[in-house]
Amino acid sequence: MSEAATQKVRPSLTEGPIAKTLFLFSLPILFGNVLQTLNGSINAIWIGKYLGEKGLAATSNANLIMFFLISAIFGFAMAAVIMIGQNLGAKRVDDAKKVVGTSAVFFFTLSLIVALLGLLFSSTILDWMNTPADVKDLAVTYTRIIFAGVPFMFGFNLIMAILRGSGDAKTPFYFLLLSAILDVVLNPLLIQGMGPFPKMGIAGSAVATFIAQLISFVLLLVYLYQKKYFLRITKSDTHLLRLNFTIIRALFQKGLPMGLNMVVVSLSNLILIHLVNSFGSESTAAFGVATQISSYVQMPAMAIGGAVTSMAAQNIGAGKWDRVTRITWSGVAMNIIMTGIIVVILHLFNRQVVGLFLPTEGKAIDIGVHINNITLWSFVIFGIFNVVAGVVRSAGAVIFPLIVSFIALLIVRIPLATVLAHSYGFDVIWWSFPISFTVAVILNVLYYQFGNWRKARMMPTKA
């Protein structure tokens, strides 16, 4: 395929029907999110079956570290998505390539630093986390191998971000599927030592993830170069593989607030768990199950939010503000429908779904059903907030959505739950969900309608 032909067929989010394009673009993102969650769940089953509670405890500590690392790079990846999208919308392919080149060098350098520090200080990091002594050795073994795979994990996430920024959500999904299949299949083979594979115990699970990420990353690169992907770095583009500090500055200025947004969400959840623990083990178990169920309920909102960000970024770059408005409200409507359907189904089969995780007799299942009755519908509101925030961020206005999250989750939700729960009862904790999400929606919609986010810029026109 010639370069000119590649340019013609490359995906564009600035033309065509908005609702259909948004729906088709968000589906692979949604399926990818579900796939990653299922991958983690299945691996946990393998580890629990073959290595028991100590194995699960060891990997849960390591997974907390990995979640933190993914949160840390999430903002940078999203900043790259938006910069690439805006440049492509404005038909500045050369500037989009500059973002790709600088992002590649930045992510590669960052991944090597993180991997080296992790390999050297895994034991110290796990001590800081107060890892139980009886699982410490297992956790260190697992964590070191996972850290060794960080360059492939970071690289994989960056390429997925670049593809989504350019309007391609299908290719990342296919290679996520490959990675998940490899990981799930290799886990029991390497843990238990089946057939020609060595018995590696806890290290086998980490090596399975390492191999899955390495193979998927390499094959994705090979695929993109074989297809002559228009944003690939060719021999004539090697001068772009440098740290362009205009782009680096934008990655930090815009990426850090988006990464901090995930930190705010995580901190809010940790404080809530600490509060729920004070009401006894049944409440903790019920809340854990409700959280797992709600993680699936949130997936349509997260996928639509990601799709809206990429679509809006390209249309902002093209100066098509009328389409940006239609993208926003199409995303809101789609979230209400998709999340609403899931919520209705879960309400109809609430006890049965909670019963998949908890004994059908006892106090915990009743608490879990009750939590779902109060909180599930609030994730429709969360989705509206997420979509509107995604559009605002796509222009480069990343501070206000962070402030809104901080206000809603740490200024409204936590004091409401912490101060009032012991005075007015357990239910206040659950009512803090719809109340905090409603505050977030009101503030975001007001800023969308009356704020100056449309004047924000990701970076100067020329880098």
What can you see in these coordinates?
The chain folds into 2 domains: 17-243, no CATH class; 257-455, no CATH class. It is built from 16 helices and no strands. Mean pLDDT is 87; it is low at 1-9. The protein has 463 residues and is mainly alpha-helical. It is globular, with a radius of gyration of 22 Å.
* Bulk shape: globular
Topology as a string of helices (H) and strands (E): HHHHHHHHHHHHHHHH
Kindly state the percentage of residues in helix. over 70%
Structural class: mainly alpha
What is the total domain count? 2
* Rg from alpha-carbon coordinates: 22 Å
Low-confidence stretches: 1-9
Summarize the biggest pleated sheet: none
β-strand amount: under 5%
What is the typical, i.e. mean, pLDDT? 87
Strand element count: 0
Distance between the termini: 29 Å
Note the total helix count.
16
Organism: Paenibacillus ferrarius
GO cellular component, one term: plasma membrane
Membrane topology: Multi-pass membrane protein
Keywords: Cell membrane, Membrane, Transmembrane, Transmembrane helix, Transport
Sequence-ordered SSE layout with sheet pairings:
Layout: H1 3-9, H2 18-89, H3 93-128, H4 136-148, H5 150-165, H6 170-192, H7 202-226, H8 245-277, H9 281-297, H10 299-317, H11 321-348, H12 350-355, H13 363-375, H14 378-394, H15 399-424, H16 427-450
